[in-house]
Structure formats: C-alpha cells, structure tokens
Amino acid sequence: MNLRLFPTLKNYNLRNLPGDIFSGIIIAAVSIPISMGYAQISGIPAIYGLYGSVFPILFFALFSTSKQFIFGVDAAPAAIVGSALASLGIAAESPDALACVPVIAFFAGLWLLIFYFLHADRIVDFISTPVMGGFISGISLTIILMQIPKLMGRGAGSGELPELLHYIFLAARSISLLSLAMGISALILIRIGKKIFPKVPMSIVIMILGVLSTTCFHVQNHGVVLLQAVEPGFPTFLIPKFVEVALTQTVGRGLMVAVVIMAETLLAENNFAFKNGYKLNDRQEILACAAGNISASFVGCCPVNGSISRTSMNEQYGGTSQVVSLTAGITMAVLLFGFTGFIGYLPVPVLTAIVISALMDVVEVHLAIRLYKVSRNEFYIFMAACISVLFLGTIYGVLIGIILSFVAVILKATAPPRSFRGIIPGKESYYDLGRNRHAYPIQHVIIYRFNENLFFANAKVFQEDLENNLKEDTKVVIIDASSINSIDITAADRIEAIASNMKRRGIQFYITEHSSSLNEQMRTLGIGHLIKEGCVRRTILAALNDAGIHKPYNLEIPESEKKLAELRSHSHLPAEEEDTLEEFAWAFGEETVQELEQATHTIIEHLHQMPDIERLSDEGIKEHFESWHTLGALDEDEILHRIELHIDELPEEMHKEHRHIVELIEKRRTRIREKVLEEHPELAARLEQNRIRLEKRLEKQNPEAMRKWREWKKRE
Questions:
Q1: Residue ranges making up the domain that contains 138
Q2: For the whole model, what pTM was predicted?
Q3: What string of DSSP letters covers 305-362?
C-alpha cells in the first residue's frame, strides 16, 4: 500500500506560502455562511457547520493528492441527510436529529473506507466528460437555486427543481426588497470587480461592506436577515450515538451519501486537475473523504465532501497545495476559539451573493456550447445528466449519466465510420469513394473498410453493408480490417456466415491489412480455417493478386468521365480537388485552401515582427517557422508562392527588403527541388508542372494579387 501523508507538500515551494495562506483565509471566511447554511439544510444547528470546517478539512488535507480541492460541509450530502430526516419523521435540530446525523456521517465515512479497499475509484473511468460536466453543472445550478430565497430574506430552499421553484415562488410573495437589493448589488460588484480587479479578493471586500451596512445603517431593522450569532468555543468531541438510532436506516443512508460523495468529489477533482495540469491518486482521494467524514461524525457534524464553490474560489486566488486547507482549518479553529462575534453582523444576502458568484463560474456553459457544435449526442448526454440532477437529485443524476455514457459508447460502436474504397487513376492507394470524386471502384471488386472493433453490437451493420452493396457481377469482396483490433464470438460467427455465403455465390472473400493478433483471435474463436482456406491476406494488393486481378486495374468509370479520368491519371490533382494527396490536404480536407492562406498570413505576420531581416540568415526561411516542419514538398512550394503574392503587405519600412525575401524564397525553392531530386527523382518533372498549374489556379483565386506580383517581378 503506497500511502503518503500530505502528498501535495512534497517538494513544496516556499514562495507559494503567502499566496496559499491568503487563499486559505479567504476560504475560511467564505466557509462561514456556506457551512452554516448547509448544516441547517441537513437538520442540525448552524454552528455545527463551522465545526465541520475544522477537523474534516484538516484530515482531508492529510491524505489528499489534489493541489487545490477544498473539503467541507456542502450541498449534496446535506440535502440527502435533510431529506432522510424528513422521511424518517425526525424534526430538524431536534435531539433525534442531533443523534442521527453524525451516525449517518460515520457510516458514510465507513463505506468510503470500504470503497478505498475495494478500489472503487475505477468507476470514475466510466464517466465521460459530458457526464462529468453535466453533473457538476446540475449540482451548481441546484445550489444556486437553493440560495435564491436567501437573497429575498427567506431561508435556503431544498429538494429538487420543482420543490425549489415552488419555494422561490413562495419566497417572492413576502420578499424583502432591501435584502434583494443588497444581494443583487453584491453579486454585480463581485462579477464586475472580478473582471476589472482579478487579484482583489472581492469576497472579503463584500463581507466587510456587509458588516459596515449592519453597524452603520442597521439593515437588520429593515427586513435584512443576519447570520446567527455564535458563542465562542472549540468543538466538543463526542461518540456517535449508535444505540439511539435505527441502524438499518442510517447504514443505508450512509451508503447513499458515500456514493454521492465519491462520485461528486472524484468527478469534480478530476475536472479541476485536468484543467490545471496535474494528476490525482483517485483511490487515495476516497481515503481522504473517508477520513474527513469519520472526523465530522465525532464533532456532531453532517457528512462532508468536496466543495466545488470553494475550490473554484481557491483556483481564482491561485492556491497551489493543501496548505490552503490547513490554513482554512486553522483559521476556522481560531475563529471559533475567540472571534465569532462578527458573524452576527454579516447580512445573509451579501454572503449568499458570494456563494452564487462562485457557483456561476462552475456551471460548464462553455462545455455545453462546445458539445453542441461538435457532437450533438454528447451534448444531449450533458443535458440529460444536468437535468437529471436538477429534477431527480444527485444519485439518480449520476446513475442516468453513467447509463447514457454506456449507451453512447454502444451507439458509436454500432454505427462506426466505414467506407467503400476505390482507385484514383494514376494513384497507388485505395481511397474513400464517398469522399473522393475522382476515385472509382475496381470492376467486380468490393473493398470495404470498417473503422471499429467488431463485436455483437455492430456485427449486423458489418454484414448488412456488405450484402446491400453486392452486385450481380461482384466476384471479389475484400475487407480492409486495419482498424479492427478485436472480435468477439458473435462477430466470429457472423464472419464465418458471410464467408460461407460468399463461397456459395461464387465470390472470393478476403480479410486484409489487420494485425497478426487478429489472426490469433480468429483461431481461438474457431474460424481459423478461414486462414487455411486463403480468406486471409496481409494486404489488399495480395488479395487482389490472389483473386487474379492485376494492374492496371479496370475501373468502373462512367462513360462521360473516361476521357477526363485518363487525363488525370497523368497529372497531379491540386489540393483543392483531392483531400488525400499532400500533408495539408490530408490533414485539413475541404479546409485546405483556408489553412494554406492562414499559414501564409501567419508567416507574413512573423516577418512584420522581425526587426532585422538579416536574422533570416543563409539557412533560409523554413527553419524559422515550426509550422512548416511537416509539410510535403508540393505544399511547401505552394506556400512559398502564396508568400510572394502577399509581399506587398509588408510594412513600408521593409519594402527595401523585398528582394532579399524573394532571394530567400528562391533559395528555399531550390532546396525543395534538390530534396525531390535526391529522394524522389520521378517527382521532379511533376513539381515543375505543378508550379505552372499553381500559377494558373492562383490567378483564378486572387487575380489582383497575381497582377501585382507579375508587375513586381518585372520591376525586380
């Protein structure tokens, strides 16, 4: 067992200490209203929220591998415990509640300890980014909605979205206008101040202003609720009263809370770790959560977990280690010992605005927009997870999100990218017939590429694609299995059936381009006889030769295109007409021209910024622009010509350097030709032909630039 204590303090940079201490003090200050409010939601007095902000956070820091995550009293466990008390008929803040809540916290910690030994952290690997983002956004929105009534002068809401909206509606009927005005003003000041003065701790500023509003203007006399005054004193250690509660109920509720704590904390921690570039030990994080909850039970507090809002604040103020948590815990202990007097002067709406502001930054709107643009299915998963949390609660939200993630994987696997391949006249490779309008199928041959592992969920798609594309004159079916790394027994049976069907119809069937491990799987799954029968070949070319189909291939070219295809077989297609020829075209497809232009303008901008053109040196241009390093010769040659067309865009003071730049371009062009002659002498003539065609093509694309270029060349 590789267990380290205070792992985030290893090789700690003392230069970060002032910032971490400052952030810790802010976290402690902000934790006052948050912890007290959530303690009340869980059914215990507010003071226990402050107790839960001392030892639990310290024990979490002892084990946590997260550099910035903050632990403490938080919404999800509090809401679950509060609803559990209601279902058990236990009144909030009653002696029964004071007995039951710590026991639930204890069992939550015990379950988390069991999860630690069972390596249950692996479940996080099955939760996708959309699920994670939707879950976190749902939790954040739920907590924001819980806080809104507090802006109006009422208590925090609870429950799911319908209950929260109903409570907000009721709160609005007896609203305190001054309270609402203070809360909204504080929220606006925080949001604006954060943008204008990002380094200023606006939370502390707003809290000070809140205290001043109480002491100077006595806002409590005008409908503004203040935090409950707290008597100074250190939390008393106590043993959870197991004999006074229904153990069956508390053990079950503890399990429910433990699952939520593990899911929410690990999801959020991994999200913050990913954004900030560090790694976690997920298993040890579960142990940290277990230690925090067990310690919470011994001070009478409700279950605790990772706090998204406080972590967001810590991120904002640049916290770098769990020194932040240690500082926050110690600060809260000092506060409890002798400085609780000011708490009774803090207006609830002002501190509520601080919480809401932090949570607004946690809602992953940017991720939702990105998913909507690039993947509608994943966007729907994000929304489903978010809405499920809002309407059904945390547990069901996580479960639904995980289920949807698995569904998405299956759906993606059942409809993978796949294509039928053909030949471009004059070319050697096999091209997607759907993407390359100059590619044609080989007569009597079907070449089919399946870009996914083959298993029970997509085997039918595989079979139907082949059957639906068979023609009366089909003689050969070749599978490009380069993307198939594994098959299951269902797929093996389906392949055998396909091969048998092809044989009955007099069609030669081949599996090609795959790794040797797939052959091993075929033998293990009982279809190794296909290898002995000659249905397996290493390459497509070998399969074609085995079937008696040799170069030059007869292609299925429409009569109207035969003449043009013959011409193209002896020429090089421009990048705009074929998406697989050169590096840029292969990488950017239909956006090739735009990307070439963008690369050209980037280089021109670099020239703008270069104070001394001689810095280009005799090494030529290429070495100064890393983005060129992967270009093919024809691509690079084209960019060189495009740079020439934009030379007149250089600043006036660099006009005298035009000749030198052109010389460098010509030098680079000569090196390209030398490289082609050395490595691919057969392409030299094509390179020159391509330059002529390029000028004609650029003439059509940018006639004005070409005119200026020709005039400039004549002057030079």
A1: 9-401
A2: 0.64
A3: EEEHHHHHHHHHTT--STHHHHHHHHHHHHHHHH--GGGGG-BHHHHHHHHHHHHHTT
